[in-house]
């Protein structure tokens, strides 16, 4: 007979503190909410302070957990230090860090990619997670340990011409995951979620009819992901359920990507 309470304890985050970048919308918001529902206090970080504060207030009202917002630009090296200091000053600890903030601006062709666009994509998607994970990871390793979760993309293993700088950065994030798993073991687990196409607010800019047709033909599950479908993987990596898992890269893509990470 299944012991539901014992199963739930594997995913319990009571007494933990989670920091989620890009946490005010899309997959980040779903993860922030799920962590609070599992018992964690949550720091929601993203570029717009009002969006962070609104998300934190809503999650706190729903769950009763202590939540706060913090304006954070992932492409700014110094803001990573400021976010880490705020988190430790506010909560006294960080047990879970999710590097979810990212961006993939459009361009006409590879020759039209400017240095400014290239730098911005690499800074937000790779430099920011590196700096934030480095300083928080060291503090986790010196303390009670913790979990770092990077959010990559299947573009890392199936790069397309229209998103090549983004794919390059996400490939670097996969490499960073493995390297930091070694750097911060044995007390800190570092893992990566590699999503495929999810129907978040960003997908409102897509031609959804064309996407649905492609999905039916190209994605084994025949559709895009719903935002809350990231929650299972996020809770697994954040909690004791993944106590012997580090350096792992988990595709959540409906089977869209054939290539291994």
Q: Could you walk me through the main structural features you see in this protein, from its secondary elements to its overall organization?
A:
The protein is α/β, with parallel strands linked by helices. The protein has 8 helices and 7 strands, in the order αβαβαβαβαβαβααβ. It has helices at 4-10, 26-37, 49-63, 77-91, 115-142, 164-184, 208-218, 231-238, and strands at residues 17-21, 41-46, 67-71, 96-99, 146-151, 188-195, 249-252. Helix 5 links the parallel strand 4 (96-99) and strand 5 (146-151). It is globular, with a radius of gyration of 18 Å. The N and C termini lie far apart (37 Å).
CATH class category label: Alpha Beta
Instruction: Count up the helices.
Output: 8
Give the C-alpha Rg.
18 Å
CATH architecture level-2 label:
3-Layer(aba) Sandwich
Shape: globular
Biggest sheet architecture = 7 strands, parallel
What fold name stands as the CATH topology?
Rossmann fold
The fraction of residues assigned to DSSP E strands is 5-15%
Alpha-beta classification: alpha/beta
Termini gap: 37 Å
Number of strands: 7
Instruction: Give the % helix.
Output: 40-55%
CATH superfamily: NAD(P)-binding Rossmann-like Domain
Question: How many domains is the backbone divided into?
Answer: 1
Query: Quick check: average pLDDT?
Result: 94
């Amino acid at each position: 007979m299944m012991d539901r309470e014992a199963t739930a304890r594997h995913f319990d985050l009571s007494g933990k503190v989670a920091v989620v970048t890009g946490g005010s919308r899309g997959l980040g918001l779903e993860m922030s909410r799920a962590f609070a529902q599992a018992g964690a206090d949550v720091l929601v970080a993203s570029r717009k302070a009002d969006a962070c504060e609104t998300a934190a207030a809503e999650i706190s009202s729903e769950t009763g957990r202590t939540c706060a917002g913090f304006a954070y630009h992932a492409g700014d090296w110094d803001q990573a230090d400021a976010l880490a200091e705020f988190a430790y000053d506010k909560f006294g600890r960080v047990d879970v860090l999710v590097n979810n903030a990212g961006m993939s601006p459009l361009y006409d062709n590879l020759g039209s990619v400017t240095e400014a666009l290239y730098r911005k994509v690499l800074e937000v998607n790779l430099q920011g997670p590196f700096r934030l994970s480095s300083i928080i990871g060291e503090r986790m390793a010196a303390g009670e340990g913790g979990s770092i979760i990077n959010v990559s993309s299947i573009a890392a293993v199936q790069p397309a011409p229209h998103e090549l700088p983004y794919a390059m950065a996400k490939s670097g994030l996969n490499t960073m995951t493995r390297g930091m798993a070694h750097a911060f073991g044995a007390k800190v687990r570092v893992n990566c979620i590699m999503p495929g196409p999810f129907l978040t607010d960003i997908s409102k800019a897509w031609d959804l009819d064309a996407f649905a047709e492609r999905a039916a033909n190209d994605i084994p599950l025949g559709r895009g992901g719903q935002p809350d479908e990231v929650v299972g993987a996020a809770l697994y990596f954040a909690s004791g359920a993944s106590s012997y898992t580090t350096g792992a890269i988990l595709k959540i893509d409906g089977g869209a990507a054939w290539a291994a990470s």
